[in-house]
Amino acid sequence: MHSLRRTLVVLVGLALVGCSGASSDDTPSSSPTARPSITAAPASETASPSPTPQPSASAPTQTLTPATAQGDPCKDPSVSLVGLAGIDFDRYANICLGMSFAQASGAMQGPTIAGDAACPWYATVLEIADPGLYVAAVSSVDDPGTAIFMFRMTWQSDQATAVAFDPPATPAGITVGSTTAEVTAAYSNATVVNVNDPSRGQRTQIVVAEPDGASFVFDVTDGFVTDIYWGTGLSQGAAGELCAL
User: Fold this and answer.
1) How many angstroms separate the CA atoms of 96 and 98, rounded?
2) Which end of the chain is more exposed for a tag (fewer CB within 10 A), N or C?
3) In whole angstroms, how far apart are CA 54 and each of 5, 116, 162, 173, 208?
4) CA-CA distances (angstroms) from residue 67 to 24, 80, 105, 209?
């Protein structure tokens, strides 16, 4: 487990050096832009979250500084990435919305970022098979790889243990493994919605919109966040299937 943590810290650390500009039951689909049907639900109607999971004593801690405190590196390349959260409304590490897959590869050290063979609009950015942490960038189906409009992070192991592995988090400290209560406490403008996902059935999601048109979508299972979607076109929630096999 110590080796896994060191691997994740190194991967995310490499991603944050210099910037220029699926849960396990998911079966990806052919259209990432498909809109699930939703019904708004007040937060009080959601199931009570389980107790907040506690990371192990040896787990590394994150220093999170909101982008608003020092600027947005996707809008101003001179902004330092040091101390910034791993994910924000318009980026993952130093990969920004609007970048092509080729530009993302140039911005992030490591393997080339390219679309999957079966669906070239969907590119894996981070993959840690054990325990099951994945981050993907998604572009248009009609013009694959030209402009990223959405990211997805998913955790495929026991959701109650996710935070102990210190995965990338939002500026408010929310990540996979966070509880429903933590999300709604961190974001006063959060909206809880019931999503009729075409492949997974009824889902509870928490949507947080920001003024520039991007949103966070936190997909919740048994009171814990298992998937996070962020980018544009997500103000009404997100479907779990993003790529056809």
Assistant:
1) 6
2) C
3) 16, 35, 10, 14, 25
4) 31, 10, 22, 16
| Residue 33 CB coordination number (10 Å) | 14
37 pLDDT tier (thresholds 50, 70, 90):
very low
**Backbone CA torsion sign across 154, 157, 163, 165:** negative
- Residue 55 confidence class, pLDDT cut points 50, 70, 90: very low
Q: Please enumerate in sequence order all residues whose Cβ is within 8 A of that of 185, keeping only pairs 6 or more positions apart, or say none.
A: none
pTM here is 0.72
Q: How far apart are CA 162 and CA 176, in angstroms?
A: 6
Cβ-based burial of 101 (10 A; exposed 0-12, middle 13-18, buried ≥19): buried
Nearest to 54 by CA among 215, 183, 207, 162: 162
Residue 200 has pLDDT above 90, yes or no: no
pLDDT in tens, 113-131: 999 988 999 999 999 999 9
Cis (ω within 30 of 0) for the bond into 66?
no
Cα distances from 63 to residues 41, 93, 95, in angstroms, run: 33, 14, 20
Q: Which residue has the tokens 């992070």?
A: 153
